[in-house]
Amino acid sequence: MKGKHIILGISGGIAAYKSATLLRLFIKAGAEVQVVMTPAGKEFITPVTLSALSGKPVVSEFFTANSGEWHSHVDLGLWADAMVIAPATASTIAKMANGVADNMLVTTYLSAKAPVFVAPAMDLDMFAHPTTSRNLDLLRSYGNTIIEPASGELASHLIGKGRMEEPENIFKVLEAFFAKQEDLKGKKMLVTAGPTYEKIDPVRFIGNYSTGKMGYAIAEEAASRGAEVVLVSGPVDIMPRHPAIHLVKVESAREMLAACEEHFPTADYAVMCAAVADYAPADCAATKIKREGNEPPVIHLVKNPDIAKTLGMKKRDGQKMVGFALETDHEFDNAMSKLRSKNLDMIVLNSLRDKGAGFGTDTNKITIFTADGGETSFGLKSKREVAADIIDTLITL
Ligand code: C5P
C-alpha cells in the first residue's frame, strides 16, 4: 500500500468515529490519504482529528469561504488509486447510486476513475429496506465493491445487520485489492469486444445486439491489475476509462482480424469477447440500394474469418487464449467443441436461458471450462465481478 493514493469519504453516521482508526491503518501502511467529508459527517467526527492523522486538510466544501479557492473534485478523482466510503449512510449510497452531486463526496465519487469501495453503516431496518438494497445493487452494477456490514448491536441498541465492517477488515480488503493490482504487471492482453457491422450499402449493415459491456469490463479489470491492454472494439456506445487501455476501433470482422493480428504476437493473453458476425455481404453496394421500382434485393453472404480460431492456430508457447460461448441450447457440448476447435485454453459459457446473462445486461452468469478439464460455475454477478473471476482463473493456467 506504500505510496498509494486513497480518498477516504466519510458520511454522517455514528460509525464515523471508526474512520479515524481506518485512516490511521492506511497511513501506517504508507498510503497517502485525502479525507473528503459530507457536511453531516463533520457532526460525528471533527475534521481537525482527521487532518492531523492524514497530514492533509480535510475537504468538505466546494470552495474555501474566505479565499474563494476551488477544491477540484476532478483533480482528486484523477489523483486517487482507490476511493473508500466508510461509513456510507443510506443517504450517501442513494446519492451515489443516482448521481445526486450536491456535496463534495458525491462529486468526487462521480469524478473518480479509480475503484470505489463502499462500507455501508445504518440501522438494521434502513439496511433491510428494498430502497437500500436496490441502491447497493446499482452501485455493484457500476463496478463498485460493497464491503458488507456486519451483524451485531447497533447505535440504536437494536441487534441486526448494519454495523459498519471493522476498520481492520476494511483495511484488509484494500490491502488485498492493491496486491491484486500487480498480478498482471508487465503483461499484455488483447481483448475483442462489441459487435461487428458488415456493410450492405453506405447506410445499412448486418449487426447484432452486443453492447460490448463484458469485453470492456474485462479490459478495465485487466488494466486495473497492471496489464497493458489493447481493446479491439466494434461499434459500441461506451468508452474505456482506464488510461492503460489502448482502444482500436473497428467496424467489420475483417478489420477486427487485421487489428488482432497486429497485436496478438506480442500479447501474453487474448480474450475473445466480441460477437463477430458469422457472415458478411459479398459486396457492399456503392450507393444506397433504392426501394422504388426494384425487386427486393438478394444479399449474397460470404463467411467471415473466425478471429479466435485464426489466432488460436498461431498461438505460441506461453500465450493463453480465452473464448466465449453464448448459447441457447446444448450449452456444454457447444462450449467444449469451441474450446477444442479454436485451440483455446479456456472458454466462458453464458446461456441465454439464464435471466440476467448475455447481451446488454449489466450482469452475467457464467461457467468457465479450461482445456485441462476444469469446470467452475459462478452465480449472477456484475460484469466487472465476472471479469475479475475470468482473470483470476486465467492467471492460474
Ligand atoms: O463459434 P462462435 O461464434 O460461437 O464462437 C464464439 C467465440 O469465438 C467468441 O469468443 C468469439 O469472440 C469468437 N469468434 C471470433 N470470430 C468469429 C466468430 C467467433 O473471434 N468470426
Mean pLDDT: 93
Number of strands: 21
Distance between the termini: 27 Å
Helix content: 25-40%
Bound molecules: cytidine-5'-monophosphate
CA-based gyration radius: 24 Å
| Unreliable residue runs | none
Strand fraction equals 15-25%
Overall morphology = elongated
The helix tally amounts to 13
Largest sheet: 8 strands, mixed
Query: In order across it, which strands form the biggest sheet?
Result: 12-11-8-13-16-17-19-20
Query: What structural class do helix, strand and pairing data support?
Result: alpha/beta
Question: What would you say this structure looks like, in words?
Answer:
The protein is of the alpha/beta class and 397 residues long. It contains 13 helices and 21 strands. It has helices at 16-28, 47-54, 73-79, 90-98, 104-111, 124-128, 130-141, 167-180, 213-224, 253-263, 307-314, 331-341, 383-394, and strands at 5-10, 32-37, 82-88, 116-120, 145-146, 150-153, 159-163, 188-193, 198-201, 204-206, 228-233, 245-249, 269-272, 279-281, 301-303, 320-327, 346-351, 363-364, 367-370, 375-377, 381-382. Helix 3 crosses helix 5 (104-111) and helix 4 (90-98) packs across helix 7 (130-141). The relative contact order is 0.09.
